[in-house]
Design a protein that fits this description.
It is a single chain. The chain is an alpha/beta fold. It has a domain at 84-273: Type I PLP-dependent aspartate aminotransferase-like (Major domain) (Aspartate Aminotransferase, domain 2), CATH 3.40.640.10. The protein has helices at residues 3-16, 24-27, 56-59, 68-80, 93-105, 119-136, 155-160, 185-188, 195-213, 239-249, 257-260, and strands spanning 35-39, 42-45, 50-52, 111-115, 144-148, 177-179, 218-223, 254-256, 269-273. β5, α7 and β6 form a beta-alpha-beta unit. α9 (195-213) packs parallel to α10 (239-249). 23% of the residues are buried.
Amino acid sequence: MNNDQLKNLEQIDKTNLFHPITNLKSHTSEDVLILDRGEGIYVYDKQGKRYLEGLAGLWCTSLGYGVKELAEAASEQMTKLGYASLFTSKSHEPAILLSEKLIEMSPYDKGKVFFGNSGSDANDTQLKLYTYYNNALGNTSKKKIISMGYHGVTVASASMTGLPAQHKLFDLPADGFFHIDTPHFYRGALENENEEQYVQRLTQNLDDLICKEGPETIAAMIAEPLMGAGGVIIPPTNYFPSIQKVLTKYSIPLIDELNVHLVELVMFGVLIHLT
């Protein structure tokens, strides 16, 4: 593609596209990275320049680019049945067999798979499920959510997300969402505080928040076992076992976002553990 063609394509982009997570003002004056194709772990722009795609398409292309088996399977399915919803007891073979496979891959003996369109959609669904569940049981005040990590950019999931940039100018987080300390020992430990003491402090902070808000008002806590958007941060030793004891004490479920996105290999969804 020559420079004139590329500039024309950029101008069409700036005139017609509304980009998410983008500074829209600077976007109008800066160059647009227009990707053309992918191969393995690399993507190429319209001028043939190669880039290492370290984000794997926001974690959605973990098998890499140009996988012929995926293309062939997609082509076959699009030709046979390009789209069908699962509303009102309608179903189809790919969804049925994929749900069975995902349950087999999960750490649970039984459960159900709910397919969604994105990680944000999956976490919105988590909120809806717990709201529905507590309303059905008559626990109409049990609606608050405690969160740690990144959980999406819709109104509900951005309220769960602990990034101020996702809250500024959007009147977020909405009422009923609370954030606890990020378990990042390197950045968050006090002077002369070891990992065990650090975990004890964060655990106590969680306990204090629950007591302040009232355990009977908290529907669930959602957390990333390994924080991706935060910088691929591994929590300190015994962090999750420690906070799990607090949550168990107050009968508060823990939503493990690793399982929320178990199906990101093919599409996003929610894995619902049936206890």
